[in-house]
Amino acid sequence: MKKQLLDNASDTSLDRVDGAVKVTGTATYSAEYLVPGLVHAVLVTSTIAKGSITAIESREAEAVPGVLAVISHLNAITVPGWPERKQPAERVPVGTALRVFYDPLIYFDGQPVAMVVAGTREQAVHAASLVRVTYQQETHQTHFEKNIGKAGVALNVQRSKNSPFQDYQRGEAAKSENTEVRIEAEYTIPTQHHQPLEPHAIIAVWEADDKLTVYDKNQGVKSAQGQLAQAFKLPRENVQVISKYIGGAFGSGIRVWPHTMAAVMAAKQLKRPVKLVLGREQMFTSVGYRPYTVQKINIGATKDGRLIGIVHEGTGQTSMYEEHLERTVLASRTLYACPHVATRYRLLPLDVNTPTWMRGPGDATGMFALESAMDELAFALKMDPLEFRLKNYAESDPERNLPWSAKSLRECYELGAEKFRWNNRMQAPRSVTQNGLLMGYGMASSLYGFHRHPSKVRAVIQADGSVIVQSATMDIGPGTGTAMTRIAAKVLGVNAKKIRFELGHSALPDAPGQNGSATIPSVGSAVHVACEALKTRLVALAREMSERFKSGGQVVVRNGQVYGSVDDKDGVSYADILKYHHLNELEVTEESKSGAERDQYSMYSFGCHFVEVLVSPLTGEVRVTRVVTCADVGAIINYKTARSQSIGGVVGGIGMALMEHSEMDHRFGRYVTTDFAGYHIPVHADIPPIEVYYIDKPDVHVNPIGSKGLGEIAIVGVAAAIANAVFHATGKRVRELPITPDKLV
Ligand code: MOS
């Protein structure tokens, strides 16, 4: 059974260390902490997309039994880190995060305008429905296509010469125009929302006026601590952020959003602990989303399939008050050996809330375009799409002219193709049917940059030989604790059951939040380094106990014991070492970060996906029937959880390709798909068998554990592979996601 589950994995993987508490419902999520005196808050949100509040009638709401307050800009406390309110209110300069309950101005539909706090959530929900807000409305612009002419270079980019989002050119611009075979096409992805099953939630608790504890769903307790400390002008240590268990996040929790500030403000104002849980409909406007993006690609090659030029332009949506920038066009500079490349990236500000990173941010969007265009060009060349990619394989980074730290994308292609049986593919579209359904094969590549941030880890061995490893890192779902336990167990030679990894608390040693696929590369390295340091201390203490351990490099650790050599039969246990030295525990704290190699090599994770689809020629329904995904992310730390992460990425990619679409009614500038009846995500019945393979070769240049990020490349390219398979099945190229039946019949 286990073997079948693990594809090409060894069966020594750890089960999730927190699996049991999660599936038995005993893991405590942010909204579930029992805090005495807790009261409940519910947001009232704007029903116009642009304008200002003229009045808030709250008497009826205040009369509801149990209601403690109706908070709005009319009576909210002053946040010390915010500038003094202007009279009359002025629209903020670009680059200012939304300040909740600050002034009467409305920037988007769904903006929090008031908040009811009551003894129970039911009382608060009812009272919130009675708050009457009147507005002076201004004309809003939310329609991307109608406004695309207003897109421009982001101010942030204009100000920063070194911004990666600057226009880029190598070789001659527009060289693709004169090539023998050329494709020019436009690709669109709609706004998509993260949709974690656990909505964002917070409990804010003030102790006196200057000590704040928040239980908040987010992806970085340290950055949330910093942002809250800054807003309330408190020393960092006076603010503690706890976020131990997270029911999915995908990027929606990377920053502190207005609803978190709202709850913290209310708790301060009322001197009561306040809980706020967003409703599903509020998840569309209270936290960010993957921005609506239109891309143009002009790509050309010689008749024998050598890429000559790529021009890749992308325009993404942002809000009127902030610029959200992402890597949309960047992969086109890096992925293939192509002499002439130009990229341009533009932003279109609209009367919407600010977008944010969503799994594979920028790259998932950009690679849909690039890898669709590569497929279109392969068909125009009458070449196998995989052969075409291999022909243009980049042996070194063509953008930075640097060697790769490691790259086994070729091996990924080969392994994936073999497992998928890609060789069975017929070149001509619409040439295979099965039970009256059209069958197609598609593939796409995946890449994602390497991120490693300075990370601290404390490792403590206790009198009984058990180990506690701590870091203020996070687990938004991939199984951080499990992977870190595996690393610690391996270094220390201690059974994983005797190790406890603690995370998700801002008082723990400083570590980055969980984003950008950086956790294992960053924190995993620090766990490795800290446990190595602890081992060194233990071995030194053992040497003081007996001559046997003085054999220099021969000493080994296993089963929680130090041995004089590999063949040594008698070891001394860590517990006995501590006892001998009269130590209750032994502790080390270490930091790990990138060194000079970061600038000497180009570091990326790579991968590819192979997809089979069946399409009904009558209804246009697409079913993904088989997926093989293969990744080169250096060393795999724990196969079982890695595999789950890869599967999750593919599932997200199936949603992106076939279902996900946040639809707006532009008459009101309001999303209409604000529940799971309207916003479709894949369910189990939509998901075929997904085979996962890894090259599992350590990248010796990236960090001491040889491991790169997996979270993002798992989704990057999946939508293109599906779109390419749909083309192969039907002969119809869909360049606007999602590929719904109406686009195929
Ligand atoms: Mo990821 S979008 O960096 O959570």
From TrEMBL:
- List the Gene3D superfamilies: Aldehyde oxidase/xanthine dehydrogenase, a/b hammerhead, Aldehyde oxidase/xanthine dehydrogenase, molybdopterin binding domain
A single Pfam family, by name? Answer: Ald_Xan_dh_C
Q: Which SMART domains match?
A: Ald_Xan_dh_C
Domain Aldehyde oxidase/xanthine dehydrogenase a/b hammerhead residues, every copy = 24-139
Q: PANTHER family, alphabetically?
A: DEHYDROGENASE, XANTHINE DEHYDROGENASE
How is this protein named in the record? Acylaldehyde oxidase
Species: Dyadobacter endophyticus
Q: What is the lineage of its organism?
A: Bacteria, Pseudomonadati, Bacteroidota, Cytophagia, Cytophagales
